[in-house]
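User: Can you predict the 3D structure for this chain?
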Amino acid sequence: QVQLVESGGGLVQPGGSLRLSCAASGSIFGIYAMGWYRQAPGKQRELVARISNGGSTYYATSVKGRFTIARDNAKNTVYLQMNSLKPEDTAVYYCNDCAQVERGISSWGQGTQVTVSS
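Assistant: Here is the predicted structure, written as structure tokens:
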């Protein structure tokens, strides 16, 4: 199973930007859909964005138009560009294989903390 390590989080003011990276220990070429998820304190983990091997994307309504997901199979890395950040975007962000998440057989990394606050 590919191990995933998230990075790029931090403290940012409302309206600011961050770029998250998800580095895989092995090839992600064979993984159909990779996703970014987030979990805010006291809330369930939710899917934020998803990208297929063919480049098709999905975004949660709350982030559409502000976040952009990308994947570089050659570098085994998935990115999440986050613009116009809002306090409600504060959460721990994780990446994962969407199929494994949906099947309930995924393991989760440590994630990366994003805090949006003035």
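Strands lie at 4-7, 10-12, 18-24, 33-39, 46-52, 57-59, 67-72, 77-82, 91-97, 112-116. The chain has a mean pLDDT of 95.
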